[in-house]
């Protein structure tokens, strides 16, 4: 937990090549805030610009950071998170999730989406909860899987 006992969640966004990433990231941030967890987005410049454009009033996201700077902070033990959600639609995303599994104490969720979600899920060889759906343009398959995960939190 953080110093003030507020739970935090890192939403890690790579290249926004697949359309569903932005909408599901905002939906996740909304769900986290509803459960009293402070969402923090770390992403590439393009991913952050899409989020900023979609949430200009910062209703869902209060903090956004550069992906590499955030990884450096976690590696340097400057900060960490209670939860970490890595959005994955290619091999780079798998590598980022593997890095987070190694450097962070956060409970890790691999959110795998895109046309090759099943194949990418098979590449996960580190401890995490895999949430995978073949979602490219329609966010609903991934949203439904994410809802199942969030329902599990409510039961705890």
Distance between the termini: 17 Å
What's the level 1 CATH class? Alpha Beta
- Any idea what the CATH architecture is? 3-Layer(aba) Sandwich
> Can you say what the CATH homologous superfamily is?
MTH777-like
Unreliable stretches: none
The shape is: globular
Number of strands: 6
Quickly count the helices: 6
Largest beta-sheet details? 6 strands, parallel
- CATH-defined fold name: Rossmann fold
Secondary structure: helix percent? 40-55%
Domain module tally: 1
* Secondary structural class: alpha/beta
* Average pLDDT score: 92
The fraction of residues assigned to DSSP E strands is: 15-25%
Secondary structure blueprint with pairings:
Layout: E1 8-13, H1 20-34, E2 38-43, H2 45-54, E3 63-66, H3 67-75, E4 83-88, H4 91-103, E5 107-112, H5 117-121, E6 129-132, H6 140-155
Parallel strand pairs: 1-2, 1-4, 2-3, 4-5, 5-6
Helix pairs in contact: 1-2, 1-6
Give a quick rundown of the structure.
The chain has 156 residues and is an alpha/beta fold. Helices cover 44% and strands 21% of the residues. It has six helices and six strands, in the order βαβαβαβαβαβα.
Describe the protein:
The protein is an alpha/beta fold. The chain has one domain: MTH777-like (Rossmann fold, 3-Layer(aba) Sandwich). Helices cover 44% and strands 21% of the residues. The chain has a six-stranded parallel β-sheet with strand order 3-2-1-4-5-6, with helices on both faces. α1 packs across α2.
Characteristic terms for this protein:
156 residues, alpha/beta, Rossmann fold, 6-stranded parallel sheet, globular, UCP006600, DUF1890 domain-containing protein, MTH777-like_sf
